Amino acid sequence: MTAPLLSLSGVTRSFGALRAVDDVTLDVPAGARHALIGPNGAGKSTLFKLVTGEMPVTAGRIRLAGQDVTRLSEPQRARRGISQTLQHSSLFLSQTVEQNVLLAAQRRHGSRHSPVPRRQAAARERTRALLADVGLADRATVPVAALSHGERRQVEVALALACEPTLLLLDEPAAGMSPAESARLVDLLRALPESVTVVVVEHDLDVVFALARSVTVLHLGRVLLTGTPDEVRGDTAVQEAYLGTGREALFLDGAGPARREVG
Ligand SMILES: Nc1ncnc2c1ncn2[C@@H]1O[C@H](COP(=O)(O)OP(=O)(O)OP(=O)(O)O)[C@@H](O)[C@H]1O
Ligand SMILES: [Mg+2]
């Protein structure tokens, strides 16, 4: 058996007395479409930060493709193929869609030894392809400030893909999107090649169940369950974790969510 692309063992992050991420052990195979769900404050975003290296672990070990990356910096991990979109946007609002993506593509494209014009041409070409992939080809010259919320999230996905990740982490990519926009996002993510392993944190369970082939439920920093979407939907402990969060109906009716995350 090949090593999982991402392997977490005993990963813990404390903030004072709070264990925001508590002894998380999880293997994500290469090519996975994995969702991480759980109530607000469960530790999902913190876990992503530990994987990207934005924040050090308090304890535990993180491996990428069999190599221990626990002590590597965020840029070192990015060079090894970890890329993410953030729960809160980090785009340059006054710049166009194209300029935002080009910046990321330039960082990645062309060896330092090839001539500058050739590198720039490669980055431009890559930018055009990325914008087409995320469905923004006709919005290239529009300033990000003028985009809808959903379109901004599409730009963020393009930025993350510009780094040519092997592991793409998406933190609430569908938050604030219209149903049409999130359907489009799901199509885009489903169309990604298997060479990109996807882990998504998402409250919109329509998106989760349309995309994920495996799901981990976090609750109070701990893994409650990892299983197939059906196993997760049918699990009593999962339903209880969601009780009182206003999302219990998502699980209890078994028919999938009728509501969307607000705030
Ligand atoms: N930098 C920090 N300092 C102190 N506490 C933090 C910090 N970051 C997160 N926390 C706490 O850790 C817990 C987990 O937060 P986290 O943001 O990971 O949750 P989440 O599952 O992403 O929630 P949400 O669904 O609301 O985005 C929360 O109780 C939060 O208040
Ligand atoms: Mg979060």
Which homologous superfamily in CATH is the superfamily of the largest domain? P-loop containing nucleotide triphosphate hydrolases
Global Rg: 19 Å
Order of strands in the sheet with most strands: 6-7-8-3-9-10
Q: At CATH's second level, what is the architecture of the largest domain?
A: 3-Layer(aba) Sandwich
| CATH level 1 class label of the largest domain | Alpha Beta
Overall 3D shape: globular
Task: Provide a count of the helices.
Answer: 10
What structural class is derived from the secondary structure elements? alpha/beta
What attributes does this structure have?
263 residues; Rossmann fold; 2 domains; six-stranded mixed sheet; four-stranded antiparallel sheet; 10 helices; globular; disordered C terminus; binds adenosine-5'-triphosphate; binds magnesium ion
Outline the structure in words.
This protein has 263 residues and is an alpha/beta fold. The protein folds into two domains: 1-81 and 165-263, Rossmann fold (3-Layer(aba) Sandwich); 93-164, no CATH class. The chain has ten helices and ten strands. Strands 6-7-8-3-9-10 form a six-stranded mixed β-sheet, sandwiched between helices. A four-stranded antiparallel β-sheet has the order 2-1-4-5, with helices on one face. The termini are far apart. Residues 252-263 have low confidence and may be disordered. Magnesium ion is lined by residues 44-45, 87.
